[in-house]
Design a protein that fits this description.
The complex is a heterodimer of chains A (about 100) and B (about 200). Chain A has about 100 residues and is mainly α. Chain A contains 5 helices and no strands. Chain A has one domain. The radius of gyration of chain A is 15 Å and the shape is globular. In chain B, the strands form 2 sheets. A 4-stranded antiparallel β-sheet of chain B has the order 1-2-3-4. In chain B, strands 5-6-7-8 form a 4-stranded antiparallel β-sheet. In chain B, a hairpin with a 5-residue loop joins strand 3 and strand 4. The N and C termini of chain B lie far apart (about 120 Å). The longest helix of chain B is centred in the C-terminal third of the chain and has 33 residues. Classes of the chains: A mainly alpha (about 100), B alpha+beta (about 200). Chains A and B meet through helix 1 and helix 4 of A and helix 1 and helix 2 of B.
Chain lengths: ~100, ~200
């Protein structure tokens, strides 16, 4: 991927995060109290797995890890947290820094 | 003199800043540079307020902790004023210590949703052109090596582990040949027993 394509992708991701913040927040909240509020998390996880199966190479070990419901929780939560921390005007720079450090 | 008041909101968290402009610096009358009071309101949690010198360190604590949470497996932030540590990946334990004697520390438990709301309120404050915050330094118990050297440490191990495994596997693989059948030895033995 070229540098300008990478920058453009980060900009789109930040703008989408701003727009989707209420949803991201609800998914994070549903995982906090999974016994009472599991529907949102389960629906999100189910759809996440469907999309990964559709668009990724499912033979790859990394992708298999994403598909495993017992293991993918931490990756999803950390990814959602990164998105939720990057909705400010400086979000583009923050997301870039997070990705370089990840 | 009328004080200026600015509020920053994000879902369940709001931050209120009260103060005055610095007229000696020719600032506009709606600017806040001399903060006299701040309040952090989190829904269903006790009100957090403090002196101006506490705001910067509390903001820094949240920022450092959120970075540790994403990069580190055991995120802990400790300082004279505030401790934050994770109960698990979803719940965070905040202990706010009062500078006054005989005042018990305030303990709060917040989830990821409230943590991200709080961070976003602080981001709004940092980005607001109407407020100027003077940064103050307070000692923290996070060693500098952990702050800046953790990734280097991980990278160093990542750099060493592949050749280490390669050498180990080479030794194991080659040592297995010791027990293999050697046809040349048998031919030599036959020749010795059958000299014809």
């Amino acid at each position: 991927m070229k540098v300008n394509e990478f920058d453009a992708l980060i900009k789109i991701t930040v703008e989408m995060s701003k727009y989707l913040y209420p949803y991201i927040r609800e998914i994070l909240k549903s995982k906090e109290d999974i016994k009472e509020n599991s529907i949102i998390w389960n629906d999100f996880n189910k759809r996440f797995i469907e999309l990964i199966k559709e668009r990724f190479n499912v033979d790859s070990m990394r992708v298999k890890k994403l598909l495993n419901q017992a293991e993918n929780g931490e990756i999803i939560i950390k990814s959602l947290l990164i998105l939720s921390f990057c909705i400010s005007n400086q979000g583009y720079q923050k997301l870039k820094n997070f990705l370089y450090d990840f | 003199m009328m004080q200026n008041k600015l509020s920053f909101h994000q879902s369940s968290v709001s931050l209120e800043i009260i103060g005055l402009p610095d007229y000696s610096n020719n600032e506009n009358k709606d600017q806040i540079s001399i903060i006299s009071q701040w309040k952090l309101t989190i829904v269903d949690k006790p009100l957090i307020e403090g002196k101006i010198e506490h705001l910067g360190p509390i903001m820094d604590a949240f920022y450092i902790y959120s970075n540790l949470l994403i990069k580190n497996e055991i995120p802990i932030y400790e300082s004279k004023l505030i401790d934050i540590k994770a109960d698990n990946l979803h719940i965070h334990n905040i202990v706010l210590k009062s500078s006054k004697a005989n005042v018990k520390p305030l303990v709060l438990k917040i989830g990821n949703s409230l943590l991200s709301d709080t961070i976003n309120c602080f981001d709004q404050l940092n980005e607001s052109p109407k407020v100027r915050i003077k940064k103050t330094d307070i000692p923290t118990k996070i060693p500098k090596k952990l702050k800046f050297g953790l990734n280097n440490k991980v990278k160093f191990f990542n750099f060493l582990i592949p050749p280490f495994f390669a050498i180990c596997s080479l030794i194991l693989f080659s040592s297995s040949f010791i027990y293999f059948y050697s046809p040349f030895e048998n031919i030599e033995k036959k020749e010795l027993t059958n000299p014809e």
